[in-house]
Amino acid sequence: MMVTSGGMAGHIREQFDTVFRRDPAARSVLEIVLCYPGFHAILLHRMAHRLYSAGWFTLARVISQFSRAATGIEIHPGACIGRRFFIDHGMGVVIGETSEIGDDVLVYQGVTLGGTGKDTGKRHPTIGDGVVIGTGATILGNIRIGDHVKIGAGSVVVHPVPDHSTVVGVPGRVVGDDQEFEPLAHGDLPDPEGRAIDELSKRVAELEATIKALADEKLSSKR
Questions:
Q1: Which of 29, 101, 107, 108 has the smallest number of Cβ neighbours within 10 A?
Q2: What is the pTM (predicted TM-score) of this model?
Q3: How far apart are the C-alpha atoms of 38 and 140, rounded to whole Å?
Q4: For the segment 59-89, what is each residue's pLDDT rounded down to a tens digit?
């Protein structure tokens, strides 16, 4: 889960490649350096995490807080984050101390990987490889989100999710597996609440039509 090889220069090069691959709006290295808070946040986290792992807890937290102030992204230095991690936009992202994040994970703004407030030890989520977490999603507690999972915008996930699943809603529910949604195609995610409302509306219309037909039949019989 955690990056264990390669120096900071290697991490920087890989992060440039990740931004170019993930974000079609990225046009140059200079633009990324100057304008991408997610880029800054992950590199500062790599530094803070190394210090934290070496026992320099206060210094690591200082770097983490500086990153938070500069980028709007809060990553605890104890969090273990894999390779090619990308935060798109990033404002309001919060990643807790015992979070573990796999490789090739994409996170949008406003995402929280948090604890439930009542656990000790491992109390934050474990995120598998190739996961996409949509805008404003919240994942809470010591649960595992499997590999290649898609979590829809605004979802609240409090239970483990199996590999190759799609999760939407509050609370989050698995609505399919082996889905082939593109990482940016939030509009293609299933909407179970919308489907339920549509089904209810259809059923109400059918009942109204039945009642009207019965009423008309009764009026005709009286004549």
A1: 29
A2: 0.76
A3: 22
A4: 999 999 999 999 999 999 999 999 999 999 8
